[in-house]
Each structure stands twice: as C-alpha cells, then as structure tokens.
Specification:
This protein is mainly α. Helices cover about 80% and strands about 0% of the residues.
Amino acid sequence: MDEPRTPAQVLREARQKDSRDKRARVLTVVDQMLAEKEPVTFTTVARRAKVSHWLVYAEGVREVIEQARRRQARQPREDGARKAPAGWQVEVQITREDNRRLREEVDRLKAAVRRSLGQQIDQVGAADLRARVDELTAANQRLEGELAQVKAHAEELQGRLTETEDDLAGARTSLRRMIRNGNQEPAV
C-alpha cells in the first residue's frame, strides 16, 4: 500500500514537473528557431518559450542555447536570408544622415553660444566690475547694519518677554495665596 504523500512532497513534485515542462518548452523553441533559421538569443528564447530569463541561463539550458548559437555562427549565410528589406535599408540611411546633420547643428549651436558668452564677458570692462564690486560692498554694509538693528530689537523683545513672564509668575503666586486665604476663613 502506498504511503500518503505530505503536502511538501506534493508541492515538490508539482514544481519538478513544472520545471521539466518549462525546460522542454525551451528546447522545443530552440529547435524551432534553428529550423526557421531565426537567430537564437537568450532573450528571444525566453520570450517565445514564456519562461524567465533566469531559466535560459540555468545549467543544462544555457549550454543548449550556446551550442545552437555556435551552430548558427558556423552555418554559411544564404543570400537574402538575413538581408534587411530594402525599405529598412533606406530608413537606416535616412536616420544616419539625420543624425549626422543634427550632430553638425548641435556643434554649430554650441560654438555660437560660446562666442556669445565670450562677447558678453569681453563687454564687461574693468570699470564696470569695480562699480559692481562697490555697489555690492555698499549693499553688504547696509544689510549688516540692518542685521545689527534687528538683533538689538530681538534682544530688547527677549528682555521684555522675560520680564512679562516674571510678572505673570508673580501674579499667579499672589492669586494662589488669595484663593488659599479665602478658603481658610471660617464661615460666619
């Protein structure tokens, strides 16, 4: 009589079966790609077999894919089998020309910006710089004076606050005494 299987055994067997099925799908996809003379890549195999990238790099599967890739690399190319359609070749050429033209335009614009910045820097003379430094120094001194006034005012306000807090504490103490004394007088 068979012993009952534990849930862990059932789970382990299900995972092993799933793994075997996935590996079999990968091998089938590799064979199909070889038959169709489609370039075998790890990503394409994973996508077509609907498995994770991890599995196609796993031991046993990786070797099969690498062997298929080597076999394809050794096979002579047939004319037209891997040649891109004429429309694609035209698109690639147009894209290359656009890229070249855009690179030239970017270089030209960078040079124009450099020239413009250089002219702006040259236009600012030493006299302008001295005037600007004097203006900034005067503004700095004015701000330092305002800061000193604000600090003095803050110190004055802090003193007033401390004084007010002391008065409040004294008033509270007097009020407590009055309440205590009022509660201690006998009723007539």
